[in-house]
Design brief:
Blueprint lengths: L23 H4 L26 H32 L1 E7 L2 E7 L7 E6 L5 E6 L10 H19 L21 H6 L21 E5 L7 H17 L3 E5 L38 E5 L3 H4 L2 H6 L2 H15 L4 H15 L7 E7 L18 H12 L5 E7 L14 E2 L25 H6 L4 H5 L25 H20 L11 H22 L3 E4 L4 H10 L1 H6 L3 E3 L12
Parallel strand pairs: 5-6, 5-7, 8-9, 8-11, 9-10, 11-12
Antiparallel strand pairs: 1-2, 1-3, 3-4
Helix pairs in contact: 5-8, 5-15, 9-14, 14-15
Length: 570
């Protein structure tokens, strides 16, 4: 027989009936079953198992939190970068444009097509903040010319689709610049405005007096209608004269106040198109889009005239000394020779503006036509005076305009004949090329052909060369000077004399502008006005007279064919 190694046989299994549930502990034997093949449950030599280190646990949790936080920060940054990367825009190649995909924002202003995180397509306007405000008029025109193509691309419309766009037509795919910045499609611009204590206006319209058009009449009409348009659309109206070719706005008019006590938005949010943008820019360069076909289809001719009239009443306030001269001049003309005279105002436009009438499209209306209309209106009465304003100084002594006197005498144009052939007078009328050539530096004039100087962006010459290179030291010095000149020419900024005229040019332009405005102010308060509607000054005079006087009472007479009053040419 084999003797068992157990001290006593195993006890039978007992279940504690007092416990409602069967415990796993009750199924195990009370004493451990020794087995040579299994390790002991208790550690050898009576040692206890090591306890967990609480400091290590806390340290591990901290590191894990840091890693997770860094992950989410990087992931959020990649999301922004992805939104900025999913964009397309129009790239100019000569006179054609093509859709270009890019991972970075372009360095020039342009409409952008972009895609959000859900794959939906939108478009907006991108203006790099570094360009400042205002942009060049050509940049604003380029943006508006590309908007329709980008909007069509985003909407997936065929290029040959004909659309009848409404002036206030909504585009669900367009995102305003402010919203695009808040949604991280575009980077936000740091606002460096000096009026940070004022809130940003909810909606604005800024009229930019730019150098696109040398004429002052078109600038007045555009500014007046823009003012009224801003009021209709509940926008705050601003005037910017940074690139005004005639100088500061305050040199001609009393400053326009901002009654809303708010400030314009950052430059990147002020765009020329589309018209539904919150912060709109209007200038002579955007006329075909702001005041184009859809504008004339939405507003009647009478409504446009009334808008211009509203702007005139709000903005046409000459500066103090010029305003006083106009009042005293009118008083003198009306009460000359101890009587009360009626006044017939004649405006004759020459220069580069030609009549609409077919027979004179390449010439000018004869002065006798103006005088014949004046005599027909006043008859043989001696209680009438004919006052004259013209851009051609020769008209004031013309044989076909007997008895006509100058509208204002504060600033007068002088002809070459009056200056005894000195060659410095204003000859033949207002020519834009002559205007841009006023006060140009001598080295720029020398680069031009004989005649009216054109606007130039040429760099000034580097100066005369030195010929005395007799010694080796002098030759080295000359070479160093040549290198310095080359470096300076390579890095010099090109000067545009349109937007950055010389001080002399600015003074001459200001004199011309003030003379023009005072002429208009005197003629507008005449009893009768005679002019040719091809001239912007004639259209301005109709607005200054008012609808009732000009068209119902027939105090405004057009001598240029059977054409009526029109707004800007576009």
């Amino acid at each position: 027989m084999l003797v068992s190694s157990r001290a006593s046989p195993p006890k039978p299994l007992k279940i504690n009936t007092s416990e409602p549930y069967l415990s796993l502990k009750s199924l195990l034997p009370r004493t451990p079953i020794p087995s040579p093949s299994l390790p002991s449950i208790l550690p050898r030599h009576g040692k206890k198992p090591p306890k967990l280190n609480s400091k290590r646990i806390v340290r591990a949790i901290i590191w894990l939190t840091v890693v997770i936080s860094l992950y989410y920060i990087v992931a959020f940054g990649k999301k922004k970068t992805r939104n900025l990367a999913d964009l397309t825009f129009l790239s100019s190649l000569g006179k054609t444009y093509e859709i270009v995909e890019a991972a970075e924002l372009p360095n020039h202003p342009t409409p952008l097509a972009l895609t959000d995180s859900k794959g939906r397509h939108h478009w907006t306007i991108w203006i790099p903040p570094k360009l400042g405000f205002p942009l060049a008029s050509t940049d604003y025109a380029d943006i508006c010319s590309q908007v329709e193509e980008v909007a069509r691309h985003v909407a997936g419309r065929p290029s040959d689709e004909i659309r009848d766009d409404h002036y206030y037509q909504d585009d669900a795919n367009f995102i305003d610049v402010e919203e695009a910045q808040s949604r991280h499609f575009l980077p936000e611009q740091v606002d460096s405005s000096a009026d940070k204590h004022l809130p940003i206006c909810p909606k604005t319209l800024t009229y930019v007096l730019d150098a696109t058009d040398a004429g002052l009449g078109s600038a007045l009409l555009g500014m007046w209608v823009s003012y009224s348009l801003a009021k209709r659309e509940q926008r705050t109206f601003f005037i910017d004269d940074s690139h005004f070719p005639y100088g500061n706005y305050s040199n001609f008019f009393t400053p326009y106040p901002n009654p809303t006590k708010c400030r314009p938005p950052p430059s990147s949010q002020r765009v020329p198109c589309p018209h539904r943008a919150k912060h709109l820019v209007v200038s002579a360069g955007t006329t075909p889009w702001t005041f184009g076909d859809s504008f004339h289809a939405h507003f009647s001719q009478r409504e446009i005239f009334d808008m211009a009239r509203e702007g005139y009443e709000a903005l046409f306030s000459l500066r103090g000394d010029d305003k006083n001269h106009v009042s005293s001049r009118l008083k003198k003309l009306r009460h000359e020779n101890d009587g009360t005279n009626g006044l017939v105002g004649i405006h004759i436009r020459r220069g580069d503006r030609h009549p609409f009438e077919y027979s004179f499209q390449h010439g000018y209306l004869p002065p006798e036509r103006y005088m014949d209309v004046a005599l027909r209106l006043i008859g043989a009465s001696e209680q009438w005076k004919v006052i004259l304003a013209s851009d051609d100084a020769n008209m004031y002594d013309h044989i076909e305009l007997p008895g006509a006197v100058r509208a204002q005498t504060r600033i007068s144009l002088a002809s070459k004949k009056q200056l005894d052939g000195a060659g410095l007078g204003w000859e033949g009328g207002f020519f834009k090329d002559v205007f841009w050539g006023l006060g140009l530096p001598v080295h720029v004039l020398n680069q031009k052909k004989v005649g009216s100087p054109m606007p130039t962006m040429a760099r000034p010459p580097s100066g005369p060369e030195h010929d005395d290179k007799n010694t080796e030291i002098e030759q080295k010095k000359e070479k160093e000077r040549d290198k310095d000149k080359q470096r300076s020419l390579a890095t010099a900024e090109v000067r545009d004399y349109k937007t950055h005229p010389t001080d002399e040019a600015l003074k001459l332009r200001e004199l011309l502008g003030r003379a023009y405005l005072m002429d208009l102010a005197v003629l507008a308060r005449s009893d009768k006005i005679i002019c040719g509607v091809a001239s912007n000054a004639c259209r301005v005079l109709a607005v200054m007279s008012g609808w009732e006087r000009a068209f119902e009472e027939k105090d405004w007479v057009n001598v240029d064919g059977n054409y009526g009053w029109t707004f800007l040419d576009y």
